[in-house]
Amino acid sequence: METLTTPKIQKAKWGLRILLLAFFAFAILLSALAAAVYFYAKILGPPPLSVPQSTLYYAKGGKLIGETNSGQQRYWVPLKDISKDAVDATISIEDRNFYHHHGFDYRRMAGALVADMKAMGKVQGASTITQQYARNLFLTMDKTWERKLKEAFYTVRLESNYSKDQILEGYLNTINYGHGKYGIQAASQYYFGKDVKNLTLAEAAMLAGIPNGPGIYSPVISPEKAKQRQLAVLQSMVKNGYITEKQATEAANEPLTIVRKAEPDTTRTAPYFQDIVKKLLKTKLGFDDQTIALGGLRVYTTLDIRQQKIAEETVKETIPDSSQVQLGFAAINPKNGFVTALVGGRDYGESPYNRVTQATRQPGSTMKPLLYYAALNHGFTPVTMLKSEPTVFRFDGGKSVYRPHNFNSQYADGNITMLQALAVSDNIYAVKTHLLLGENVLVHTAKQFGLTTPMEKVPSLALGTSGVHLLDMVHAYSLLANNGIENGPVFITKVEDYKGHVLYEYKPEKKRVLNQDAAFVTSQMMTGMFDKRLNGYASVTGASIVKDITRPYAGKSGSTNTDSWMIGFSPQLVSGVWVGYDNGQEITLAADKMYAKKIWAHFMEKALAHQPVEEFKPPKGVTAVEIDPSTGKLATPNCPVARLTYFISGTEPVEPCSKHPDTAENDLYPHKHHNWLQKLFPFFK
């Protein structure tokens, strides 16, 4: 019997075929679209994973001294430095199939859709870790279809260009844990006061539960809800095979201490120093403002925390709160050029103006060591004699007149040596030396010493009338302390990005800029300010602080009507102090004029207290002989005072002193005996 196909049945078959063809066409189209999206994502390449990261500043030894952020504390740590419990807890509660999908968990999405339909509302999320990471990196939190499509596309880009571990690491370092802490390291430090690698299972489970609702599950905001969420995380870990029931129970019963670790108060740690470092990152190393502020840099500096604390405390102890004077202070290790301490003013909160690098002030007599270094290279020696007396210098055919004077108008009214002129800070000797050399010589020498401010070719330049920066002067003295080798000033030793890649590393480039022998002889003459054997018509300028020092130092003080200076060094450390008023007001109080020397002496003694006493080591090109300070000739047994003095070899005196006859009285002052200063300075014989 023949089976007849009715038109109705035939039409149904055709409809089914069309439906199947449409389904296959849609599937092909969808696959083609997915492939197109995937290949487009590959063509675009990996999306940038950079997010605002806190830039951190470290002192020598690795102590954190500063931080910049946008209100979001975030410290990137590699996945290997995150505790396994924290990783497992996060995957278990947020995306248990993370390592098995390609960005979208379709089964979980379907389950969430069913749950939402049953509840007639949004009750279950289905976003994977990759989707959440994409949202955190690139998108706003508005709930629109456009945002959801973009999220899906960025999810594809992430999955097609980065490994699962890279995505997980980025996610853990960017998610919000509440209270301005972004990333699990910042959260671990805030909630538990420890690095994330040291978290216990209980702590890890507590943290893993917070991102789902930082304003709800923070243990600071709601300890009860945070505890419930922790238990849910632990049970998910049991269900997903990460831990046993026993481990979950033990973790649930473990008492937790929420420390709420405060942000480090970095604004009080060498703020002027930090400002210089930030400026150097831009001007010298080429980082842009955004990278410096929020690029997650790790900046390692030369700051010595101990010396910085000593400097700040010494300033506070020396200058009373009632005084209105300001100051600048800087210290440098001359052996490597590292700036170890810096105080740019008495209160950064009141004035961030940095008197060490920004202020231009007259250095006064602290310019004289540079002048006498130049003189040594032009035929002078430490015993070159010039007359100290009231002198009028005339120029331009007598049209211009310059009348320098000594402190308190005291003069030797006779010849004195360069050695003594420097020790008592004779101004007439300095101006005469400057004019004999020619005014261009000191201008050139100042540049040779690294002074960056312009120098005027005038007679008064010898007395420090051209403004300088304190840091430049301290650096100049460090050249003398280091026998003429330049290697600083250095503030930054290394810069890393947030993943630990080295972006910059300081490499020493020692450069000889001064004659070694002349530099050493200059530094030895500078020890004279503490040597009372060089007293003459006036006392040596360091007499007031000799009682405060216990090791060999070289130095020079300086003063103008508006500025008070003291710069000096041992072989291990150079430091300098400027004291004055920002508005250029005249310093009239006697106490204000003494602050610079007191601060310098107390800082140096405390800073070097645990270091061995080092002597200045002479180079091969110098010769030491004992001289009579009053005549500059070789000391004889009849001279009441003799001082071991260094000369560039071949320039030392050969004529013995004949000023002092052999009398019994002179036996009271045998120079061969050690007096108090020889005990203080072993290199004096």
From TrEMBL:
The keyword S-adenosyl-L-methionine does not apply. This is Penicillin-binding protein. Pfam families: Transgly, Transpeptidase. The chain crosses the membrane at residues 18-41. Gene3D superfamilies: Biosynthetic peptidoglycan transglycosylase-like, DD-peptidase/beta-lactamase superfamily. Residues 329-604 form the Penicillin-binding protein transpeptidase domain. One of its GO terms (biological process) is peptidoglycan biosynthetic process. InterPro entries: Beta-lactam/transpept-like, Glyco_trans_51, Glycosyltr_51/Transpeptidase, Lysozyme-like_dom_sf, PBP_transglycosylase, PCN-bd_Tpept. One of its GO terms (molecular function) is serine-type D-Ala-D-Ala carboxypeptidase activity. In the C-terminal section; belongs to the transpeptidase family. It comes from the Bacteria. Its main location: membrane. Residues 62-237 form the Glycosyl transferase family domain. The keyword Membrane applies. SUPFAM superfamilies: beta-lactamase/transpeptidase-like (SSF56601), Lysozyme-like (SSF53955).
